[in-house]
């Protein structure tokens, strides 16, 4: 058992813009977060991951950084940030910062210089190419619709931007860029932070020929072959580890798009000297069709189990999993994988999913509001949406003649603003998030779903999370036990066994509203049982051999 604090931790993600506004301008900020630290302490989380708070023109809500060593005015000052770090540390919590270095903002001083002339000393900080036959250098599409290249008439060349045109990709081939990044990381680490979440870190190395991607002529294509886990990715991460990370006791989690467990093992393998864990996207893809995330397709439990089991097994004993069911880029977990159609079903299904999140092998990541069972939102008009990914897609699909209703439905199920509506603190005006007008409308269900209600109600999802977090602290097996799926073919129940030495942990989850029967395989022997947690009352006398599970029922037993 390779004990590590970051394996035993539960992480809570804060999306600062939507967490808590302290000064009535409608935008969440650092003082707002500080005012809610006791709430986080009550919940019991160990680490806070703060989405970007750096200076930014906010084309992509802070994921476009114009100064890596300054705080965004709207969020506060560096003194506020120091106070936040201190407030967390005083309460025994840690802080990890978002590191966004695949790209910067086009308003970063480096890019302002870079675009000035072909011989500017900063030219090679970014990826510039001449056009081809009066068009872009290649056919790559951006993650946010349209071409991945933007023409700059000043020097008659194009620059690469895998995300928005205000997010030019940094040129990691240039050793000066790498040194700047390492120095900046060191600056933050010396301030006492406890690690980094690294934005799309597996895209930083580009195959240098920048070849066209395969696919039909005249359409932009996903160029992933040339930049997903690119040729020098492991060299760069090992260098970063050697130069910076290895000098501190910190945790790292890389956001890695399109990776398989085999790829992941190279990033997180014990002796690789790269990262502690990665966020994988395979599970987030089970409800997408062949043309991508907006091609909404119903998910199946078979796929869900197959993907989770594959990752659990592949990294066991070598790497370490991160566990998440939603974040600021994904729809709300309870709306997507649970059931938000009534308060009762929302409550039990939110708890069932929470049980999964905390009892798999890996480090759980809770996204703000998940612990309240916050849901997706359906704004009537596209005007109410703010996310650049949504707005660009809407524009592109509308221009292509797609019907408005279908476009809106795909936004309702997959749009990133589902996760970004402000945190619901109480049933008062604007859900207690702000005294002003929130930057993104509040979900109208805040009177029913809010933190005050949840903290006051012992049967709430919030209290269930608190209990799960405590259990992880009390039982090593929940953190370190090996994973084995049970009754894999069952299309309604997800059950698995964790084992550590002589101990076993049995987790049984009914993933649907219909009742279901679970029969424990005869091969599992035990002489004693202890129910650790369930989202229903369980009679004192009952048999584990046959369980009749109610809607979304979840049970966790320790077996001896
Ligand atoms: O949001 C997505 C799911 O559709 C992805 O395309 C997402 O853009 C990708 O996972 C990368 O995400 C990260 O980098 C982006 C930023 O917009 C996201 O918020 C961030 O998490 C660019 O920095
Ligand atoms: Ca504010």
TrEMBL record:
Family as reported in the entry's similarity comment: Belongs to the glycosyl hydrolase 13 family.
NCBIfam families recorded: PRK10933.1
Its EC number(s): 3.2.1.10
GO terms of biological process kind: oligosaccharide catabolic process
Gene Ontology MF, one: oligo-1,6-glucosidase activity
Spans traversing the lipid bilayer: none
Highest taxon above the source species: Bacteria
SMART domains assigned to the protein according to its UniProt record, in alphabetical order: Aamy (SM00642)
Assigned keywords, A-Z: Cytoplasm, Glycosidase, Hydrolase
Top EC category: hydrolase
Organism expressing this protein natively: Paenibacillus zeisoli
Reaction(s) catalysed (UniProt annotation): Hydrolysis of (1->6)-alpha-D-glucosidic linkages in some oligosaccharides produced from starch and glycogen by alpha-amylase, and in isomaltose
Subcellular location: Cytoplasm
Pfam families listed in its UniProt record: Alpha-amylase, Malt_amylase_C
UniProt-recorded name of the protein: oligo-1,6-glucosidase
Domain Glycosyl hydrolase family 13 catalytic, residue spans: 13-420
Gene3D superfamilies per record: Glycosidases (3.20.20.80), Golgi alpha-mannosidase II (2.60.40.1180), Oligo-1,6-glucosidase, Domain 2 (3.90.400.10)
PANTHER family noted in UniProt: ALPHA-AMYLASE FAMILY MEMBER, OLIGO-1,6-GLUCOSIDASE 1
